[in-house]
Amino acid sequence: MPGPPQGGEGTRGGVDETGSPRCFSVPGGDATSDVSGQTALVLEVPAAEPVVARWRRALDPAAADGMPAHVTLVFPFLPEPQLDAGVNDDLRRICASFPPLAVSFTGFGEFPGVLYLEPRPAAPIVALVEELVRRWPQAPPYAGVHDSIVPHLTLALGADEHALRELRAALSPSLPLRDEIDAVSLYVRVAGSWARRRRFPLGRAADA
Predict the structure, then answer these.
(1) pTM of the full structure
(2) What is the secondary structure of the chain as a DSSP string?
(3) What angle do CA 79, 81, 83 make, to 5 degrees?
(4) What strands, in cross-sheet order, belong to the sheet with 70-74?
(5) Which of 52, 117, 147, 200 is a Cys-bridge partner for 153, taking CB atoms 3.0 to 4.6 Å apart?
């Protein structure tokens, strides 16, 4: 879930003698925030989960807190008490106006201390984010800290360069990963974990 980090210190890690990923401590910031009622709009990527799950559980704190493999659209979104029927109706309408997204993850990208998979094409995801922000300008991605929208599926946060090289080597043979994403998921932070509350289908009006 994290965007480009704004500082903080990661600890060293990598893989142990069995080839399993070691756990990392991660920098403070939104990825490890424990604010109950905080929300996020994401695109879940089920096809990636079998490939990246064990790495993300060790190297991405959002995974350890219950967030599956995903591309973040808006985080933080509106606080949970503000998610009334009108917000849900607008989310349903906006999502229905976009077709399902056929994406391929063919390569890696990096922010400082962060390794991620790049979804292609990125433009339809950016367009969806921009439409959401037009409706809720008070909830820009990552609270408006970053100047540009860079869709990404985070694999590791707070890892050192050696660990990132190991992770690249482990996952490269599984690329490209392809999926058709058919819904936007709304997640809510509850008691230190992420829980999915609703799915808003892309390209059709019914709410699953």
Answers:
(1) 0.83
(2) ---S--S-------B-TTSPBPP----SSGGG---TT-EEEEEE-GGGHHHHHHHHHHH-HHHHTT--SEEEEESS-S-GGG--HHHHHHHHHHHHTS--EEEEEEEEEEETTEEEEEEES-HHHHHHHHHHHHH-TTS-GGGG-SSS----EEEEES--HHHHHHHHHHHGGGPPEEEEE-EEEEEEEETTEEEEEEEEESSSS---
(3) 80
(4) 70-74, 39-44, 183-190, 193-201
(5) 117
* Rg of the chain, C-alpha, whole Å: 16
For the stretch 114-134, pLDDT in tens is 899 999 999 999 999 999 999
Q: Which tokens go with 195?
A: 């829980």
